């Protein structure tokens, strides 16, 4: 049995044995049931043998097998279950196979005190299961291990892809030279040919994935579930090469599953969405969680009429009516991504549209002309991409010139007017500013959704879709614009370029925090002096936040590279852990945002912003579509720095100073005082002095009314207001009249969420 990890203290396990088998494509076919608060259906996995198997198999089958056996000894599995499920097919060809199961199911996932365990009843359908002793009844069978949590797995079967009409083109005799003609090998060869089709045949590939996913099953597979994993095997199959390369898993989520949240939107209508859980998507579908498991996916999702399904997909899906009251939504992606980036939101969302064509035209005119700052770097030059083959926008001449990608905005009905006021106008400005900074947009379109009020952060970015909190809408453009810029930056850093080891969150969040300032300054078209003033004010606010967090958190959580020299290392099977991934307090910490930001800011100051941004663009061109470690970026950057500017910088001393230690880095302590000389900061200091003096006068003469015209206070920017209020909070006592005067002077109730907080 798996070790029981404390979900409040331990690391997050990534159980999938990706070194032996990799999922290349997922096909999800799901129904959303708001009454039962479950998502149910099937997922088809198309697999290829992994790097570890290919490496060891060349040394001989016995060597390979001994490593499988060694891996298996480390994990004593639970009994395999073989549920025999009668499957009925609905009349509509667009629909999926109905299923249900009665009787006792996977004991390991059953909660005796829960009404949503696997001990469920359904009328009219029978099932049975056999308990198979893996140790005595096939201890040499290969196990496919998937990451899985809080799911009711009902059935696992091999898919007969050979039964698909027209599949013969993948079974030409020349392609099977030296390979057994057994049907099992034929099926695996078909899948291999399908997943390795060249990028220019991606539409054909997607079509065959669809047809293959609808093929009949050809034999049930043994499976068992644990706390964190789903283990699948086929009796008598000892190697990944012989294991079925196309499998279908019938399952349903649980209402208490932690990958999605069931709630109501701001208009009181039911909805469900992925809210960025620490356990990622393993409670939404069985998958391979390690970042190295890059895959594509497609999904058909059915729900009641009136609901809108938004998803991380390249296409802007339009619903298809299957029957009265039921709609189906279809999305796909052709760029391989980690399964953790899959995102879905189902609700009664309304699309927010421009009310005036003239307004739209004006926005496009003002933003569409922006070109990358150093367009000669990558506008016309043909680059050879370093990623696995897929239809890459960096190779598409039209995409390379697209400053503003197509976008849509969705929100609950009651927030549509607020979205139209600022958000709709800001998106093209921020997209264009991002393009002017980094060049080609990695993704072809963007949906922005205002998510329910229980969303725990200000924003979250996924491929083709951004979630924003309702908190960014009130109080003007500032917070809405800066947060939008932050999430747009993740298209490059966090999505198109991902961390090979999830403990290096700073690669995503540090870059997005640094770039949000660059994007927002360009979106506002500020002068050089205005940009410098705003950025130094922002740096001071972030420094204060980092100082407070360092003083009030565990030292081990302040390290940006907690695994140090072991960062990026995997076990032989491909399994690993995300260090401190399940620590409750880590979810609310911003140290990887802030220390990462200050490291990048320090490097930019060292080599100059123009040269630094040119290096960022070079890094994007070289590493998009790939996973990186800290040293990949730092090594490339240092190569571009002239010797006279390096100031003794090396990858090793950057690790030691910034990434491998807790606390505030020494260079940052030395820089902290310089921001106080900024004009915007000095203006705040003057206002703070006025308020403190006024507070003292009121306290001394509490019975006398203060004349309203005694003190004139200046109007401040939102970030200045935050600094003012933080400074006043450091005073021991503020009298009630001062608080009332603060409210009147700055209209605090109408300010943005950061000021209100």
UniProtKB/TrEMBL annotation:
Drop me one GO molecular function for this one. zinc ion binding
Q: Region Disordered: start and end of each range? A: 105-130
What Gene3D superfamilies does the record tag this protein with? 3.30.2010.30, Neutral Protease Domain 2, Peptidase M1, leukotriene A4 hydrolase/aminopeptidase C-terminal domain, tricorn interacting facor f3 domain
Keyword NAD assigned to the entry: answer is no
**Per its UniProt record, what Pfam families does this chain match?**
Peptidase_M1
Location of the Peptidase M1 membrane alanine aminopeptidase domain: 441-658
The Polar residues compositionally biased stretches are 111-127
GO cellular component labels: nucleolus
Which keywords does the record carry? Aminopeptidase, Hydrolase, Protease
Q: Which InterPro entries match?
A: Aminopeptidase_N-like_N_sf (IPR042097), AOPep (IPR033577), ARM-type_fold (IPR016024), M1_LTA-4_hydro/amino_C_sf (IPR038502), Peptidase_M1_dom (IPR014782), Peptidase_M4/M1_CTD_sf (IPR027268)
| PANTHER family associated with the record | AMINOPEPTIDASE O (PTHR46627:SF1)
What is the name attached to this protein's record? AMPO Aminopeptidase
- Origin species, per record, is Myiagra hebetior
Gene name, per UniProt, is: Aopep
